[in-house]
TrEMBL record:
Annotated organism of origin: Georgenia thermotolerans
Organism taxonomic ancestry: Bacteria, Bacillati, Actinomycetota, Actinomycetes, Micrococcales
GO biological process: proteolysis
Protein name per Swiss-Prot or TrEMBL: Peptidase M15
Record InterPro entries: DD-CPase-like, TAT_signal, VanY-like_core_dom, Zn_M74/Hedgehog-like
Cross-referenced SUPFAM superfamilies: Hedgehog/DD-peptidase (SSF55166)
Gene3D superfamilies named in the record: 3.30.1380.10
Pfam (any one): VanY
Length: 183
């Protein structure tokens, strides 16, 4: 078997590091593209796992909400619970698409608005709402969310949380659904 010189060994190590760096950049680039195209947080969770999410600047998620969630996510992980954002900030266009799909599915604006609000009323469009998963993570956040000022909002959406109160303050009563907010 031929001996590898120190110079060849150094070049091979450099090549391995370069390939790894390019792979990391490729994943980051795909994640950014998916985020900008409306794939939001779930694209990052799929590509890189729950520990890596899209940067706040790319998602327009409120910075305070982002910090609160990250603190909750760390504490959940310390307790062995996976907690990730499945949907965060949405553009008005994406929100309207969701409304249109819900209207097709449920047959009326009133029924659709039980699940998804129009863009001008959506906390997601304002960057002030997150949907979380998996189910065990959402349950954990419902139990512990008030410590971070993150509150579940709707009875019919166990995944939807908003920064409604100061950390450590009890959360308000749940609303039956998003349509109740339209009054």
């Amino acid at each position: 078997m031929p001996r590898i010189s120190a110079d060849q060994s150094t070049r091979r190590a450099f090549a391995r590091r370069a390939v790894l760096a390019l792979a990391v950049l490729a994943v980051a680039g795909v994640g950014l593209r998916l985020t900008l195209d409306g794939g939001a947080e779930s694209a990052w969770a799929t590509l890189a796992g729950p520990a890596l999410r899209a940067p706040a600047a790319a998602t327009a998620l409120d910075a305070d909400l982002e910090r609160r969630f990250e603190a909750a996510q760390l504490d959940a992980a310390a307790g062995g619970v996976e907690l990730r954002i499945t949907s965060g900030w949405r553009s008005a266009r994406e929100q309207q698409r969701l409304v249109d799909e819900a209207m097709t599915r449920y047959g009326s604006a009133e029924a659709a608005h039980r699940w998804v609000l129009p863009p001008e009323r959506s906390a997601h469009v304002a960057g002030l709402a997150i949907d979380v998963g998996p189910a065990a993570g959402a349950q954990w956040l419902e139990q512990h969310g008030s410590a971070y000022g993150l509150c579940r909002v709707y009875v019919n959406e166990p995944w939807h949380f908003e920064p409604l109160v100061a950390p450590g303050t009890p959360c308000p009563e749940l609303q039956p659904d998003a349509g109740a907010a339209l009054g």
